[in-house]
Amino acid sequence: MLDVIVIGAGPAGVFAALRAADLGAKTAIITRDEFGGMAANDGPVPVRTLAQAARLIREARQLDMYGIAVSEPVLDYPRLLARVRTVVNDVRMHSALRAQIDSLQVAVHEHAGTARFVDSHTIETESGLQLQAEKIIICTGGVSRRLSVPGFELTATHSNAWSLTSVPSSMLVIGGGATGAQVASIFNAFGSKVELFEAGPRILATEDEDVSAVVADAFLESGILVRKNFGKIESFEKTSSGVRMIFSKDDVLNSAEAALVVVAVGWTADTARLNLSTVGVELDHRGFVRVNTYLQTSAPHIFAAGDVTGRMMLVPQAIQDGFVAATNAVRDAKMMSGSQVNPIGSFTDPEYAQVGLTETKAREAHDVVTAFVGFDSTTRTIIDGRTTGFCKLIVDRATSKILGCHVVGERAVEITQVAAIAIAAGIRVDDLARVPLSFPTYTAILGRVAASAARQLNLEVNWQANRAEDET
Ligand SMILES: Cc1cc2nc3c(=O)[nH]c(=O)nc-3n(C[C@H](O)[C@H](O)[C@H](O)COP(=O)(O)OP(=O)(O)OC[C@H]3O[C@@H](n4cnc5c(N)ncnc54)[C@H](O)[C@@H]3O)c2cc1C
């Protein structure tokens, strides 16, 4: 019998297996398909490669502004997909993780088919493999949520991008969350006529309201038709050139059609065939595996980590959770999962990112000051012709500590990482304002916005750190 079996080789599973083996546990990892999971093969890595192509098209269109004459960029989609495959393979080959897993003598069972519990300690896969272990860590990730409406099988998910032979002439994207917004932004840049349907009153509902508003305006300006509060989907039906969506609002039927309909209405746990009920592993009301703060399920020897628990659903958090679950499984320890500082971002045009509390959430519990600097007023964004966006800082009036940072615009995700470090270090906003950030850079906006917040708090920003930005 093994000490630990990890099911699923995405970021959560790989880090769980690494940690378990590092602690001396005899460990095996089983995964249905490729090592690396969705992150490496179907999520951030390939999608970011498409986003990079979209960025290059935008940048090519900017060349004229700098006196460089070229013809209009033309996308060869099959060649782009070949690039995606190269990137995915390169990332996999250069990942040090596989070598570490092998050096720790973790038994890796790739392409094993779907695994399921036979009994509390036995796992069997479709390929016929049967393994037993004292402890089991479920890291099976998630799948796109399906809707039970007639004709749903006519729709696509983001994964269908890998099998398209050309860019669809038109696309309906259903769901204005992170995945839907990325799909809409990327295929709009590729030349599809995109309509983005959001059931709620705003797209990117988990972002700060100002961020949602600026991204929605930028989408509209770039040609994406954003349809908020659109109502309820009734059905999908085939047309001669694609798919029609029938929807209703206030009892009035309406329809929209396109060559392709992509549905991105959320993520659910990939547990359907695990046979969890027979081993006493409970799901929560959303269908994710229920875990306590030690990532232990309702069956004490079974742990879960990553998207399957329905928490942050991001790679860094999946990695952290894999580490915590394995530590607790092997050592019978009580390491807690979760961090106060979780930078989140997305590679749309414009990019957006956040760390900490939104302004609305911060105001519920704190007396706050907010500072705001627009991308139309910083040197680097003007140089690069990237003047859409802003950086907003939310600061606690009592402690002068940073509660949240929200950025829309070029390099938003990178800028927010620096704010995350400031929040994690617990530094005061006037201390951040004194850091002499390089000039002219995108991140320097943080110095400006921090100085603005510090001034509102009557804190002295006596070192002239960010004067370069103010005086040019
Ligand atoms: C379009 C898109 C873009 C994203 N972009 C980002 C981003 O920019 N940054 C970011 O941090 N996150 C991003 N994410 C989220 C990120 O990909 C996930 O949070 C992360 O992959 C979760 O890791 P995981 O290990 O929990 O699961 P996964 O990566 O989903 O891995 C789970 C693995 O388990 C396998 N499996 C499932 N069931 C079984 C079974 N019964 N038996 C055997 N194997 C099984 C699956 O095949 C899969 O290989 C994105 C997601 C999507 C969909």
Oligomer: single chain
How many strands appear in the DSSP assignment?
Answer: 21
Low-confidence stretches: none
Report the biggest beta sheet as strand number plus sense, adding barrel if it closes. Answer: 7 strands, mixed
Return the structural class: alpha/beta
Proportion of beta-strand residues: 15-25%
Question: In words, what does this structure look like?
Answer:
α1 (11-22) links the parallel β1 (2-7) and β2 (27-30). The mean pLDDT is 94. Helix content is 32%, strand content 23%. The protein contains 14 helices and 21 strands. The strands form 5 sheets. Strands 1, 2, 3, 4, 5, 6 and 16 form a 7-stranded mixed beta sheet that branches. A 5-stranded antiparallel beta sheet has the order 17-18-21-20-19, with helices on both faces. Strands 10-9-8-14 form a 4-stranded parallel beta sheet. By secondary structure, the protein is of the alpha/beta class. The chain is globular and about 65 Å long. Flavin-adenine dinucleotide is lined by residues 7-13, 30-33, 37-39, 43-44, 47, 114-115, 139-141, 158, 179, 270, 273-274, 306-308, 313-316, 318.
List the helices and strands and how they pair.
Layout: E1 2-7, H1 11-22, E2 27-30, H2 37-41, H3 44-62, H4 77-94, H5 96-103, E3 107-109, E4 115-119, E5 122-125, E6 130-138, E7 142-144, E8 170-174, H6 178-189, E9 193-197, H7 209-221, E10 225-227, E11 232-238, E12 243-249, E13 252-258, E14 260-263, E15 267-269, E16 302-304, H8 315-331, E17 344-346, E18 352-356, H9 359-365, E19 368-374, H10 379-383, E20 390-396, E21 402-408, H11 412-425, H12 429-434, H13 445-456, H14 467-471
Parallel strand pairs: 1-2, 1-6, 2-3, 6-16, 8-9, 8-14, 9-10
Antiparallel strand pairs: 4-5, 5-6, 7-15, 11-12, 12-13, 17-18, 18-21, 19-20, 20-21
The structure holds flavin-adenine dinucleotide.
